[in-house]
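Sequence design from tokenized structure. All designs in this work follow the same two-part layout: the structure record, then the generated sequence. An example of the structure record is given first.
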């Protein structure tokens, strides 16, 4: 039996909190974050979990808007982190944190 091809990660960037920060980034930060998002959408989920550069880390004290999914921090640039959760093949971004320490609060 043929192996089912793995599907690429789909991105959901429609969170108002995410967009509020994303649309105010300076051009250098915006370019870095956009490049990272483009790289992520070319990965499948096993690559996301294995990637050392993304630093996909669970934040146990936070829950996604659905009240049950785990929220993860993902590195989008050297100083910027995004908070996201997985829903099927979607990586749903909740917020964006230019001060990466604030992502863990």
């Amino acid at each position: 039996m043929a192996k089912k091809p793995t599907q690429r990660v789909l991105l959901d960037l429609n969170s108002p909190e995410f967009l509020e920060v994303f649309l105010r980034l300076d051009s250098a930060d915006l370019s870095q974050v956009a490049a990272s998002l483009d790289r992520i959408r070319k990965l499948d989920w096993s690559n996301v979990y294995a990637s050392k550069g993304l630093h996909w880390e669970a934040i146990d004290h936070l829950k996604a808007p659905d009240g049950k999914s785990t929220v993860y921090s993902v590195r989008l640039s050297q100083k910027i982190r995004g908070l996201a959760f997985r829903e099927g093949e979607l990586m749903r971004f909740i917020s964006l944190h230019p001060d990466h320490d604030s992502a863990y609060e």
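The beta strands are 10-12, 57-63, 70-75, 81-87, 90-97. We note this feature because it recurs in several other targets discussed in the main text.
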